[in-house]
Amino acid sequence: MENWAYMVGMIIGAVAIAAVCWVWVRKQTFGTGGIGLSIVGVILVGLSVWKSVEVSYTNGNLVVRLQKLEQRLGQVAEASSAVTQEVQKLTDSANTTREEFLKLTRTLEARGTLPPATIRDIREAIARAPTVDRAKLDSARRLLNP
Description:
This protein is mostly helical. The chain has helices spanning 2-27, 32-49, 67-111, 116-128, 134-144, and strands at 53-58, 61-66. A hairpin with a 2-residue loop joins strand 1 (53-58) and strand 2.
Protein backbone atom coordinates (compact mmCIF):
# COMPACT_ATOMS: atom_id res chain seq x y z
CA MET A 1 0.00 0.00 0.00
CA GLU A 2 2.83 2.37 0.86
CA ASN A 3 4.53 1.90 -2.52
CA TRP A 4 1.24 2.52 -4.33
CA ALA A 5 0.66 5.78 -2.45
CA TYR A 6 4.27 6.76 -3.09
CA MET A 7 3.92 6.25 -6.83
CA VAL A 8 0.56 8.05 -7.09
CA GLY A 9 1.90 11.02 -5.11
CA MET A 10 4.99 11.22 -7.28
CA ILE A 11 3.03 10.98 -10.53
CA ILE A 12 0.33 13.51 -9.62
CA GLY A 13 2.89 15.89 -8.12
CA ALA A 14 5.13 15.63 -11.16
CA VAL A 15 2.19 16.20 -13.51
CA ALA A 16 1.15 19.28 -11.53
CA ILE A 17 4.65 20.75 -11.68
CA ALA A 18 5.01 19.81 -15.35
CA ALA A 19 1.69 21.54 -16.16
CA VAL A 20 2.90 24.76 -14.58
CA CYS A 21 6.20 24.51 -16.47
CA TRP A 22 4.37 23.83 -19.73
CA VAL A 23 2.14 26.89 -19.36
CA TRP A 24 5.18 29.00 -18.50
CA VAL A 25 7.06 27.79 -21.58
CA ARG A 26 4.07 28.34 -23.90
CA LYS A 27 2.65 31.64 -22.55
CA GLN A 28 5.23 33.01 -20.09
CA THR A 29 2.52 33.50 -17.47
CA PHE A 30 2.50 32.34 -13.89
CA GLY A 31 -0.79 33.29 -12.29
CA THR A 32 -2.56 32.25 -9.13
CA GLY A 33 -3.33 28.87 -10.67
CA GLY A 34 0.34 28.34 -11.38
CA ILE A 35 1.23 29.14 -7.80
CA GLY A 36 -1.45 26.78 -6.52
CA LEU A 37 -0.43 23.92 -8.81
CA SER A 38 3.23 24.42 -7.95
CA ILE A 39 2.50 24.25 -4.23
CA VAL A 40 0.29 21.16 -4.64
CA GLY A 41 2.93 19.48 -6.82
CA VAL A 42 5.75 20.20 -4.39
CA ILE A 43 3.65 18.99 -1.46
CA LEU A 44 2.67 15.76 -3.23
CA VAL A 45 6.22 15.03 -4.32
CA GLY A 46 7.57 15.99 -0.91
CA LEU A 47 5.08 13.85 0.99
CA SER A 48 5.83 10.94 -1.31
CA VAL A 49 9.54 11.19 -0.63
CA TRP A 50 9.46 11.90 3.09
CA LYS A 51 7.39 9.64 5.30
CA SER A 52 7.80 11.84 8.32
CA VAL A 53 9.40 15.19 8.82
CA GLU A 54 10.63 16.25 12.23
CA VAL A 55 11.66 19.87 12.69
CA SER A 56 12.98 21.03 16.04
CA TYR A 57 14.82 24.04 17.36
CA THR A 58 16.89 23.47 20.50
CA ASN A 59 19.78 25.42 21.93
CA GLY A 60 20.01 27.63 18.87
CA ASN A 61 20.23 24.67 16.47
CA LEU A 62 17.66 23.89 13.82
CA VAL A 63 17.28 20.13 13.32
CA VAL A 64 15.36 18.72 10.36
CA ARG A 65 14.99 14.95 10.08
CA LEU A 66 13.56 13.36 6.98
CA GLN A 67 12.87 9.72 7.81
CA LYS A 68 12.24 8.31 4.35
CA LEU A 69 15.24 10.11 2.90
CA GLU A 70 17.47 8.78 5.68
CA GLN A 71 16.25 5.24 5.02
CA ARG A 72 17.01 5.53 1.33
CA LEU A 73 20.44 7.03 1.99
CA GLY A 74 21.14 4.10 4.30
CA GLN A 75 20.14 1.68 1.55
CA VAL A 76 22.36 3.49 -0.94
CA ALA A 77 25.27 3.40 1.53
CA GLU A 78 24.79 -0.35 2.04
CA ALA A 79 24.68 -0.96 -1.71
CA SER A 80 27.74 1.23 -2.24
CA SER A 81 29.58 -0.66 0.46
CA ALA A 82 28.76 -3.94 -1.25
CA VAL A 83 29.95 -2.58 -4.59
CA THR A 84 33.13 -1.29 -2.95
CA GLN A 85 33.82 -4.71 -1.49
CA GLU A 86 33.30 -6.35 -4.88
CA VAL A 87 35.62 -3.82 -6.52
CA GLN A 88 38.18 -4.60 -3.81
CA LYS A 89 37.94 -8.31 -4.61
CA LEU A 90 38.32 -7.62 -8.33
CA THR A 91 41.27 -5.34 -7.67
CA ASP A 92 43.00 -7.98 -5.56
CA SER A 93 42.35 -10.56 -8.28
CA ALA A 94 43.66 -8.23 -11.00
CA ASN A 95 46.79 -7.47 -8.97
CA THR A 96 47.39 -11.19 -8.46
CA THR A 97 46.94 -11.80 -12.18
CA ARG A 98 49.31 -8.92 -12.98
CA GLU A 99 51.96 -10.38 -10.66
CA GLU A 100 51.52 -13.81 -12.22
CA PHE A 101 51.96 -12.37 -15.72
CA LEU A 102 55.11 -10.56 -14.61
CA LYS A 103 56.51 -13.79 -13.13
CA LEU A 104 55.64 -15.67 -16.31
CA THR A 105 57.33 -12.96 -18.38
CA ARG A 106 60.49 -13.19 -16.23
CA THR A 107 60.48 -16.98 -16.60
CA LEU A 108 60.07 -16.78 -20.38
CA GLU A 109 62.82 -14.17 -20.54
CA ALA A 110 65.19 -16.29 -18.44
CA ARG A 111 64.58 -19.34 -20.64
CA GLY A 112 64.94 -17.33 -23.83
CA THR A 113 61.59 -18.60 -25.10
CA LEU A 114 60.48 -15.26 -26.51
CA PRO A 115 62.50 -12.56 -28.24
CA PRO A 116 63.38 -9.49 -26.12
CA ALA A 117 61.08 -7.21 -28.17
CA THR A 118 58.09 -9.43 -27.39
CA ILE A 119 58.99 -9.52 -23.69
CA ARG A 120 59.22 -5.72 -23.71
CA ASP A 121 55.81 -5.46 -25.43
CA ILE A 122 54.25 -7.78 -22.88
CA ARG A 123 55.69 -5.79 -19.97
CA GLU A 124 54.42 -2.53 -21.49
CA ALA A 125 50.95 -4.02 -21.94
CA ILE A 126 50.94 -5.18 -18.32
CA ALA A 127 52.05 -1.72 -17.16
CA ARG A 128 49.24 -0.07 -19.18
CA ALA A 129 46.55 -2.31 -17.70
CA PRO A 130 44.11 -0.24 -15.61
CA THR A 131 44.44 -0.39 -11.84
CA VAL A 132 42.43 0.78 -8.87
CA ASP A 133 44.20 2.85 -6.26
CA ARG A 134 43.66 0.94 -3.03
CA ALA A 135 44.05 4.07 -0.86
CA LYS A 136 41.30 5.88 -2.78
CA LEU A 137 39.06 2.84 -2.55
CA ASP A 138 39.61 2.59 1.20
CA SER A 139 38.93 6.30 1.69
CA ALA A 140 35.70 5.99 -0.30
CA ARG A 141 34.68 3.04 1.86
CA ARG A 142 35.37 5.06 5.03
CA LEU A 143 33.25 7.94 3.71
CA LEU A 144 30.33 5.61 3.05
CA ASN A 145 30.62 3.74 6.33
CA PRO A 146 31.95 6.11 9.00
